[in-house]
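Researcher: Go.
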Amino acid sequence: MPKSIRILLCVALFTLVGPAFSNGPRNSDVQPEFYFTRLMYTDFRGRGPAPGEPAPRDFERGHGLGDSMTGYLGAWRTDTWDADYQYMWGIQRMTNTRLYMEPHPMGIMDPNLSKFPYIYAVEVGQMELSKEEASRLREYLLRGGFWHCDDFWGLRQWNQFEAQIQKIFPDRQIVDIPLSHEVFHTFFDIQEILQPPNIRNGRNYSYSNGQAPTWEQSDDTVPRVRGVFDDNGRLMILITYNSDLGDAWEWMDDPDYPSKFTKYAYQLGVNSIVYAMTH
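Model: Structure:
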């Protein structure tokens, strides 16, 4: 997997109003240099891939379809597979990175995990790692991997997630990432942390002219971008807490989902990819 990323410096972020993607995505490029790798995990209810279970290869599309399957397949399936397709579609439009354009789920213990320097996990407030999985993720991250953790809300889910990070890195702290950090400026300049909501709250926000809340849990309503760093100051884990970038990607073509949140989600997503592929 190449460690560089080739960005078109002249491209500007689409406005996400109107048929931004009307021409459709191209096929996967020959010898892709970036795979949007979605991490498969077991949640605290015991739902998830069985040991040794291969990654799915049937990527049926449909808004909300993945969410309907989480009750028996596990929380990791949230937003699949439309969020994956829509996200890669946008990245392909904005960059000239050679992309693999199909979903790319992978288990934590897959022996090929180290070949892919960027992994994404959703609903991590429900994750439950075994000792072996924590050790594998620790090795992956210390060897240069980058992990984006997204879409979890409130102190109960935060405490569950924090306990899993402590299994991986008992000697490291989760810290707030300042807006001056380069992950906010690798390609797009992000000056403010926003709170991309789920589709229901997003539509309510639009219908109320921006007056409806975008948070999900009342015990902690502020969006935060946090992280875990290695000894050299490299960001290993990007944490978008009290935010749902996955829904912003999945529902980017819904006219009632606020475009400002989709724009932010794509901007931060592109920046995280550029950061991961160049550090």
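Model: The mean pLDDT is 91.
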